[in-house]
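## retry 2 of 3
previous attempt timed out at serialization; input unchanged, resubmitting
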Amino acid sequence: MNPTEAINLENLTKVFYARKKKIVALENIDLSVREGEFLCIVGPSGCGKTTLLRILAGLEKQTWGKVIIRSKNPEKPLTSMVFQGESVFPWMTVAENVAYSLRIRGIPKNERREIADHYLKLMGLDGFADTFPHQLSGGMKQRINVARAFVSDPEILLMDEPFGALDEQNRLILQQELLKIWEGSGKTTLFITHSIDEALVLADRIIIMTAHPGRVKAIVPIDIPRPRDILSLRSSPQFGALFQEIWRLLQEEVLKAQSMELKN
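## retry succeeded, writing output
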């Protein structure tokens, strides 16, 4: 494994069995992720994107193939995952939700509140520290999830369509805030999205996956300088050219997935 790599996957395959039927979710995935890289994964529904992240998070076990994740600091959590759906604790305040992982690790109360306050401010939640989740919008709840993932200070951040359920306005705001907080942390990040726009805004590279079974079809480098301003970036000719390149690669797989769904 190259010392600049945080993750290395070799021939990664995942097979499920349902009602005596064999379902190959992922097939022969070969992928290296550089340390500090922001990698976006796009692909049609059902191509195994979430399964891939769950394997990296240790929530699923691959059927065969190698998964190598390099840990530089054994005192830190190896991974932290942000899900699409709401995963806040409704009986805890915003600050308590954000600091939850620190409490589990036995960090003293004053120290964990100081750490939590830092990320609350970065995510625009500092005025809501003592508020309960039911008093907040969906966008604000996702800010809690993102802040909580960074507070735990993992070596690798796994994000499964964290903004997928939000309206366009909230998505734009949270994309910009995520970029700001990520650029300050330099964390290796894998981010699943169905939005080509979102992937272009965030990623260093974009992985395009095939329709079921999921394989790596192409890897597209996004050579756009950082820091990035979302509005000016979207209006640039480079953004439009990259969008067309990725859509040409993805369109065929989306149509294949739709065809398979109709046959079933």
